[in-house]
Amino acid sequence: MPSTARAANVIAAVVALVGVVAALHYNRLGLTLAHYDARAHLVVARRVLDSLTPGWQQVGAVWLPLPHLLNLLPVQVDGLYRSGAFAVAISIASMGLATWAIASLIQRATGSVLGGVVAATLLMLNPDVLYLQSTPMSEPLLFGTTFLAVALIERWASSIVPPEGGSRAKNRGTRPATTAAGWACIAAVLTRYEAWPIVACAIALAFAVLVRRGWAAADAFRAVRGLALWPLWAIAAFLVNSKVSVGAWFVSSGFFVAENPALGRPWLAWTQVWKGLGELTGAAIPWLACLALALIVGAFVGSRSRSGAVVVLALAASAGLPWYAYYKGHPLRIRYDVPLVAAASAIAGTGVALLPRRVRAAAGIIVIGIAAWSAEPLDARAPVIVESQRDAQNTAGRRAVTNYLAAHWDGQPIMMSMGSLGHYMQDMSHAGFNIRDFLHEGNGEIWQHALGNPRPFVEWIVVEEKAEGGDTLYSQGKIDPRFFSGYQRVAEGGNVALYRRVEGLRRMTGAR
């Protein structure tokens, strides 16, 4: 086995072991499913088969499908659905894949094993990254797929032999198959939206590497065009699915209230992204990553053999998504900066690898020491962990609603917005409720008809009344005062209200 593979395999194995220990730690603290999105991801995967209207359309069109497809069958097992254990295993494996990929890229591009060690260590020292890889959240899978895509794109670009005789030569050089890099790109762009700018930048930087290594621009463009088709076809398929599922090519609004002061102010949006990164890593690491970026650009300009290292900079394009979200008024979410933590780790590790050999080890130790001092590993008060527990008080309050339903439910459908209360549906699984017991947005025309007049369709209605200004059902009740006509409020708690059809209450009273 080549030494590059051996070193990367060792790094990935150590990371996986650390990941298991971290996952057990956070599970012991009861934080595995603390974030409402962690539970909601399990719900989306489960509902494909467990639904009033099961089928492929249940994959949805807001979140990208790969995390849910990977969990589709395991979450049909109640124990795995309620615990999220299989999804956590995917997260741990994804972090091993990410560190394997970045270690391979750095050693191949620079000849340094130490750079990969530094990158992997920075990534796994960060308490917010460690926490997310211990949950069913989709960020770890994003790291695994994007790091792999970037590494394989760099390998593909670095292994092409330029044509002899310039762009008019009959010999167009050797062009290794794009299959491996192409499938990695597909996996990435179907995981999270941050991958879209990352993959686009990686392909653009691969073009720059080819030109730097002697390709004419026209030949380099033709070479990368075939690679670019892989993610483009995948994105096109997702957009078509979105159009068929929800009637819109791309769902970009309707799931948040525009309350960010950065709305329409691009510079303020950028400062929010930069500030968030500093809160996650400490003030020094972002600036060290900037210095590493300068080293990488310098290596690209000064050395053809090391020019491939520039592809790692594509990971920084993950900043584009939170910047755009804040610019559009999306509320601040510190979790949106975590992909930038991963990017900074990879870029800093690559920068260390490009330093002169005599100072490389000392620089690596200093960078790791600064990272550990700035953000203590396993810190229970790390920003993402604190943010993940924003719903904890409401979770406790909603038990009154759950208890009432568990005691009085008659098997009739419960109308509830999955977009706002998907995480609560997962909570209710512990009381014996399945996704097929709920009427939600994924049920298409039935949901639309029930929005106009719920009485012929559902006995029960559960409404989120406060978060993001209230859910769709709450808004419908404001627009149409007759919406709750014929229903009586029977329980409430944690910003949630439960309504029951009056006829059902009368039957229950008569039975008594």
Explain this structure to me?
- With 512 residues, this protein is mainly alpha-helical.
- The protein has helices at residues 3-28, 36-47, 66-71, 78-83, 85-110, 113-125, 127-132, 139-159, 179-189, 195-212, 217-246, 266-281, 284-302, 320-327, 338-353, 357-374, 383-388, 392-397, 399-408, 418-428, 445-452, 472-479, 502-511; strands spanning 414-416, 438-439, 460-464, 487-493, 496-501.
- It has a five-stranded mixed sheet.
- β4 and β5 (496-501) form a beta hairpin.
The helix content, as a percent range, equals 55-70%
Main sheet: strands, sense, barrel: 5 strands, mixed
Distance between the termini: 75 Å
Percent in strands: under 5%
Tell me the total number of β-strands.
5
Catalogue the unreliable spans: 167-171
**Strand adjacency order, main sheet:** 2-1-3-5-4
How would you spell out the order of helices and strands?
HHHHHHHHHHHHHHHHHHHEHEHEHEEH
Average pLDDT, to the nearest integer?
Answer: 90
Number of continuous helical runs: 23
Give Rg in angstroms: 25 Å
Task: Using brief descriptors, characterize the structure shown.
512 residues, mainly alpha, five-stranded mixed sheet, 61% helix
Short description:
The chain is 61% helix and 4% strand. The chain is mainly alpha-helical.
SSE diagram, text form:
Blueprint: H1 3-28, H2 36-47, H3 66-71, H4 78-83, H5 85-110, H6 113-125, H7 127-132, H8 139-159, H9 179-189, H10 195-212, H11 217-246, H12 266-281, H13 284-302, H14 320-327, H15 338-353, H16 357-374, H17 383-388, H18 392-397, H19 399-408, E1 414-416, H20 418-428, E2 438-439, H21 445-452, E3 460-464, H22 472-479, E4 487-493, E5 496-501, H23 502-511
Parallel strand pairs: 1-2, 1-3
Antiparallel strand pairs: 3-5, 4-5
Helix pairs in contact: 1-5, 1-6, 2-20, 5-6, 5-8, 5-15, 6-15, 6-16, 8-9, 8-10, 9-11, 10-11, 12-14, 13-15, 15-16
